[in-house]
Amino acid sequence: MTPLSENPFTLGVASGDPLPDSVVLWTRLAPRPHEPGNGLPAEGSIAVQWELSEDDTFRRVVQSGTAAAPAADNHTVHLDLRGLEPDRVYWYRFRAERWISPAGRTRTAPRADAAVAAARFGLLSCQQYDEGYYTALGHLAREDLDAVFFVGDYIYENAIDARAGARNYPDPLPAFYDHWTVTLEDYRQRYALYKSDPELQAAHAAHPWYLTWDDHEVENNYAGDISQHNDPVDLFRARRAAAYRAYWENMPLRRPQRPAGPDMRLYRRFAYGRLAQFDLLDTRQYRSDQAYGDGWHIPGPESQDPARTITGEEQERWLLDGFRASTATWNVVAQQVCFSQRKENSDEPSRVSMDTWDGYPASRARVLAGAEQAGVRNLVVLTGDDHTHCAFDVKKDFDDPDSATLGVEFLGTSVSSGFDGQEHPEDWETTLAANPHLKYYDARRGYVVVSLDPERVRGDLRTVSGVTTPGAPVSTAASFLSEAGAPGLREA
Predict the structure, then answer these.
(1) Are 250 and 77 in contact (CB under 8 A)?
(2) Residue range 20-45, pLDDT digits in tens
(3) Model confidence, pTM
(4) Contact call for residues 61 and 52 (beta carbons, < 8 A)
């Protein structure tokens, strides 16, 4: 092929899904990131060299080789390295012809039987490009973390105007972005736009990520094969296949996650020594349709039907089997939508969201009963979607404040979705009053740092003062602790 005359590493590098002896390294070649095809041939493959080093100067290279970036995979590289040392920091980089990528830093997980003294993780979600800058990601890149959990809405499917909405760029974006994503090319280019952001690149280069999706990677509030606007199933499945393919191409995921048409096995489990077991869920692909046409409604026979599921039967069984087999101190469930009950107000009955676990109470009851029967004493749920910081006690019976607390939930706010936000939204007082198990509620942008040790879990809820202009500082809005063996949040 013609030699690369322009830098192909415009979308950065990433790593993910760390195991004790392995990690996935990722990059995408795109010398012209904002045009379809990215300035590369539509067929064939480009050879990409790679290096893994014990130091950031690449003087102690421990592995190296050559990988293919096939046109069929949009010139992406998914390198599943093996034979690594556990709980070890490594640096990596790629080379294509004369061009060298930025260096990334990654870390393997501890051995499954290791006694881990402490670990720190980031919690991220919801980064709508045209609603604000990725200031939170720039700050997260500078945090001392072992890994990051991203729990959904990496991209959004909406049309983006020439000024990039709230970013108000003086130089216009290409007109290609100004339509809703439907085709494979649409989704591939949407990832190119998002990944061109330097703060997103920095956050990926700084830490390995565990990723799962929510709805906007395809379409808002879809449920299984049912689109938001009830499009013909065959048309929606074709759109879902395009979205899933572009998602896999652009994430540091292994070969078993590669989709087959509109189906992709994304839920998966990781051990982090004896300290924690991570279960990453997919609450979109297998769920029943939202009850009562979606939105906020008073619970009733339709939403309370015990046959309804947010996970699907197979994933639910996999989760509960994992609880029974777990020997970890902490069982961490990273998933998409609010798990704890959240009433709209103190009216009885009150409306709840049909898109969250409140719309699938039988699913939630089965998960909590399964955790309790398995002897899981330290359940931690990590959530996104809502564009707010929330800290919940997970109750056995949410309608009884005196019922047993079975775990805790940290619901992290958005990176940028929802524009600048505010500390106390309009429903702040009514929401806190209606939900005594809700310990904190804040609608600014940011992320969560989750710290684990054998004695406690801590959530530091970080916020930035705004995202519609770049460069805002970050601060810790609140911190909460829960002790091992005695679940329940208290202020740190």
Answers:
(1) no
(2) 999 999 999 999 999 999 999 999 99
(3) 0.98
(4) yes
